[in-house]
Amino acid sequence: MKTRSILIVFLLMIGCVAFAQKKKPAPKKQATTKTTATKTTAKNMVIAPKSATVATKIETTTTTTKEAATTKPTTRSAFYKTPYATRNSGSFDKSTHLISLTYGFPNTLDYNGYFYSANESGIGPVTVRYEFPIREEAGVGLSVSGATKKWDYYGGYTTKITGISISPLGFYHFNKLIPITKLDVYAAVGASIDLSNYSYDDPYYNNSDTSDLEINPAGLVGARYYFTEAFSAMAEVGEGSYSIFRIGVSFRL
Q1: Has residue 3 got a pLDDT over 90?
Q2: Quick one: signal sequence residues (predicted)?
Q3: Measured between alpha carbons, how far is 92 from 140 in angstroms, rounded to an integer?
């Protein structure tokens, strides 16, 4: 009896130990470890592309900077290597319409005579010009100039001349030869149609007025520099429009 009781108790103890082992949280620990490992792996997978992206960006920026540094010195040579028909600095093209306003000096409006002890004075010439393009490097224009000149001479007599000059001109722009966007260098040839009106306060001319019409060749060389896309200052030298030198401004429409 006693031995049977001891055997039963022993079997019960073995059963309890076996039941307790079944309820141990060992599998949960393994799952947690796996999850942690998965999370760590996931984090690493996210971080890796970011690092790669940053590296790529730095590499791209460095490459772009190197390319820019390489391109700048070769811009002018690249301009001249481009075929003449397709190159253009941008200072003039088929869309460039110009209105210019200039003041000329010296005033070459003159009288075919001699005034002894005469005081000379004058205004102008003031010139307004419109030019429109016909090619990438060429245009045609029309200038209208006005000037006056007056002589006060011995005896209190005066002679006054008022002149109007109309000049059709053909322009060539050096935009295919000079690689500077803001600088427009040009030359022009044409004719100057000059109408002069003389008024006299002189008894020898019976206080009468006379007029004179002449057609003279005209030619000039000039340059304008653009301070903005539409506004530029200009200077010219050449015969025509009652002056030799002219300075003024231009507006690109």
Answers
A1: no
A2: 1-20
A3: 13
Q: For 98-252, give the CATH class.
A: mainly beta
User: What is the per-residue pLDDT across 132-176, written as a single tens digit (0 to 9) for each?
Assistant: 999 999 999 999 999 999 888 777 778 889 999 999 999 999 999
| Helical (H) or strand (E) element with 68 | helix 26-71
Contacts of 61 (CB under 8 A, 6+ apart): none
Amino acid identity of residue 118, one-letter, is A
Residue 118 contacts residue 150 (beta carbons within 8 Å): no
User: Contact, 112 vs 198, CB < 8 A?
Assistant: no
For the ranges 61-65, 163-167, 225-229, the lowest mean pLDDT is seen at 61-65
Neighbouring C-beta atoms of residue 61, cutoff 10 Å = 10
Surface-to-core class of residue 17, CB atoms within 10 Å of its CB (0-12 exposed, 13-18 middle, 19+ buried): exposed
Pairwise CA distance, residues 73 & 187, whole Å: 29
Query: Is residue 186 exposed (0-12), middle (13-18) or buried (19+ Cβ within 10 Å)?
Result: buried
In the structure, how many helices (H) and strands (E) does the chain have? 3, 8
Q: Domain coordinates of the chain in residue numbers?
A: 2-61, 98-252
Alpha-carbon Rg for the chain, nearest whole angstrom, is 46
Q: Strand 231-239 and strand 245-252: pairing?
A: antiparallel
Average pLDDT over the chain, rounded to whole?
A: 78
Residue, of 200 and 141, whose pLDDT is higher: 141
